[in-house]
Backbone:
């Protein structure tokens, strides 16, 4: 049951939940057919907020309307390859800009997030590792000071969340990823834009190799 909150519309809550359940692989797998009525019953809401949420999901190409119902598209292998190709080209730009723009207060927030990730890695807490991983990237996008970079990169990062969780469940990759984040952070602390961009490129390259290898294998 979704409970309405004053600051967040019911349709927004429905959208966030459906998006998360589709992209995380928790529910509604790729290829499944649904109806507004079933979703409304599942979520315990009327069809109106469900309809609004579905419209947004369709705009993001996560679902599509078919003659048989609402088809779950999710993220295909081609989508995954394209997402990494885009991130390889522009995510380093966000890190470079963050290295130039970041304030001491923002550096502290980035450091705390990184240290939490490093804390959870030896505990093998995949959900919290993924949460801190996402937060680390989100903060860099935010601290780049570029709305265009943030608005481009955040949806792409969210779309691969299922694959990122599977990746951090691998102990060696979780350790390596945290080390790569540490290297990016240190470049940003040094306000070295070129190095921050390079280390981000290396991090995304390694993430791509690990995730695509898992999917192909």
Residues:
């Amino acid at each position: 049951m979704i409970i309405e909150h004053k600051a967040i519309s019911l349709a927004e809550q429905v959208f966030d939940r459906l998006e998360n359940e589709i992209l995380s692989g928790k529910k509604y797998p790729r290829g499944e057919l649904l109806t507004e009525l079933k979703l409304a019953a599942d979520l315990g809401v009327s069809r109106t907020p469900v309809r609004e949420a579905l419209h947004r999901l369709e705009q993001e190409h996560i679902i599509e309307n078919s003659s048989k119902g609402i088809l779950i598209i999710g993220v295909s292998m081609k989508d995954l390859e394209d997402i990494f190709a885009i991130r390889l080209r522009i995510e380093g730009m966000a890190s470079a800009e963050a290295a130039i723009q970041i304030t001491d207060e923002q550096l502290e927030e980035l450091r705390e997030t990184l240290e939490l990730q490093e804390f959870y890695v030896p505990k093998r807490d995949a959900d919290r590792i993924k949460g801190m991983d996402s937060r680390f990237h989100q903060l860099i996008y935010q601290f780049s000071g570029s709305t265009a970079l943030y608005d481009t990169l955040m949806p792409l990062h969210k779309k691969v969340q299922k694959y990122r969780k599977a990746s951090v469940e691998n102990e060696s990759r979780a350790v390596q990823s945290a080390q790569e984040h540490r290297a990016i952070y240190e470049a940003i602390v040094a306000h070295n834009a070129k190095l921050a961009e390079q280390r981000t490129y290396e991090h995304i390259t390694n993430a791509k190799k690990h995730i695509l290898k898992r999917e192909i294998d």
